[in-house]
Design a protein that fits this description.
Layout: E1 11-13, H1 35-44, E2 49-53, H2 54-57, H3 66-83, E3 86-91, H4 110-130, E4 134-138, E5 143-144, H5 152-169, E6 174-178, E7 187-188, H6 193-200, E8 209-214, H7 215-220, H8 225-234, E9 238-243, H9 262-274, E10 284-286, H10 301-319, H11 322-330, H12 334-345
Parallel strand pairs: 1-2, 1-10, 2-3, 4-6, 6-8, 8-9, 9-10
Antiparallel strand pairs: 5-7
């Protein structure tokens, strides 16, 4: 049954969400903000949490020894405290190194697989220093360009071995798999929420493996994000979200939340609020990109707008006439329910 207690939401985004506008077809179009400048923006826009890749937290970490990484992470931890912010999660960035050209955990090269696991352990070290036990795994290159290049059963086994190594390295961490069906690989081994929750059951501690659902990734798989969220919530395994929007089944656009399909956004807010997401401290995470056309001084508005859109839809979710909603369902008048929802979204009830 839905939980009637209202959640007070906290919001997060990653420093990569304020970027220079480069894309696969063109270079950067605006100057960078420094990391410290980005930190100052968080509270001003109403955000409390920072999402980190490991090398967002400790740049050039492959050149550093473990103790050097820990020392730098401690300095960042103090910087976050001074800013009144907390780290939501740390994610190992395993898709940019030359050793992960053919995948990280699923590489055909054992030395490259070893690198990926050791890099992940350093990400866990950073998470410990920053005060979060959540590790997000976006399995970016864990897939194939051609089917014959890898053995899919062996690939799943290798993913399980990598997660087991993480779970055994630190008994407190939780792993949130972020599924995506394609891009940068043609085909991913863990493309959906169902795949992520299934592979969790093969690990030594399935209770510590859940999911991070990104709206756009679900859409790219031809699925509805709110249904994916409901599926994960039914397992109590939805540990963070990346809200955004997407125009169809093409490249990952990371558009402002609700910008493409307001109804789809409404349903995501509805399922999250109805079933108490956030009650245990989970953040409303955003993963949105500024349009390439934005000038530097307004290249943060996609974040501000996404948060405001969530809160406006939250107000509608909490004030909509649920009794009338249920009456339409009771008499199976789904055409009536459809126009009821549309009228509420257009504020013409």
């Amino acid at each position: 049954m839905p939980d009637k207690q209202k959640t007070e939401y906290r919001f997060s985004f990653g420093p990569w969400n304020i970027h220079e506008g480069a894309d696969p077809f063109g270079p950067a179009v605006r100057d960078s903000f420094s990391f410290d400048e980005k930190l100052k923006m968080y509270k001003k826009m109403g955000f409390d949490g920072v999402q980190f890749h490991d090398d967002d937290a400790v740049p050039d970490m492959n050149k550093l020894k473990r103790q050097q990484i820990i020392t730098k992470a401690k300095k960042l931890s103090q910087k976050l405290k001074n800013a009144g912010l907390s780290a939501e999660f740390v994610a190992p960035r395993l898709w940019e190194d030359y050793r992960t050209i053919d995948g990280a955990y699923t590489s055909n090269n054992s030395a490259c697989r070893k690198y990926a696991i050791e890099r992940t352990k350093r990400a866990i070290d950073i998470a410990n220093i920053l005060g979060t036990n959540l590790i997000v795994l976006w399995l970016a290159r864990e897939g194939t360009y051609i089917r014959e290049a890898k053995d899919s059963r062996k690939a799943v086994q290798r993913l399980v071995e990598a997660m087991n190594a993480m779970l055994e390295y630190d008994s407190k961490i939780r792993i949130a798999i972020e599924p995506k069906p394609n891009e940068p690989m043609d085909q991913a081994y863990i493309p959906t929420t169902g795949h992520a929750l299934a592979i969790a059951q093969l690990t030594t501690h399935p209770e510590r493996v859940g999911v991070n659902i990104e709206s756009a990734h679900a859409i790219l798989a031809g699925l509805d994000p709110s249904d994916e969220m409901g599926f994960a919530l039914s397992f109590n395994k939805l540990w963070t979200v990346h809200l955004n929007d997407q125009n169809g089944l093409k490249f990952d656009e990371d558009k402002t939340f609700g910008a493409v399909n307001l109804r789809r956004a409404f349903n995501q807010v509805d399922i999250l609020d109805k079933y108490g997401y956030g009650r245990s401290g989970e953040f409303i995470g955003l993963d949105v990109k500024a349009m390439r056309t934005q000038k530097k001084e307004i290249s943060h508005l996609h974040l501000k707008n996404s948060r405001e859109m969530f809160l406006k839809l939250l107000h509608l979710v909490r004030t909509i006439d649920r009794k009338k909603w249920q009456e339409y369902i009771k008499v199976r008048n789904y055409e009536g329910l459809e126009i009821f929802i549309l009228n509420n979204l257009m504020n013409v009830v």
